[in-house]
Write a structure and sequence with these properties.
2 helices; rod-shaped; mainly alpha
Length: 52
């Protein structure tokens, strides 16, 4: 019975460690936003018609 408890605690610690690692990696990710291109009607129109 003690073996099952030790294995359970070991699995719990591994899952907890991986969870904390994943959360920290997600918060460390640098999010960027692409700049909106300047409106230039001549460049934004295609041959088939206006871009909506």
């Amino acid at each position: 019975m003690i073996t099952v408890i030790i294995i359970g605690i070991f699995i719990f610690l591994i899952v907890l460690g991986l969870t904390i690692f994943t959360i920290n990696k997600g918060y460390a990710f640098k999010h960027t936003i692409d700049e909106i291109p300047a409106k230039d009607d001549k460049k934004n129109r295609s041959k088939s018609g206006p871009v909506l």
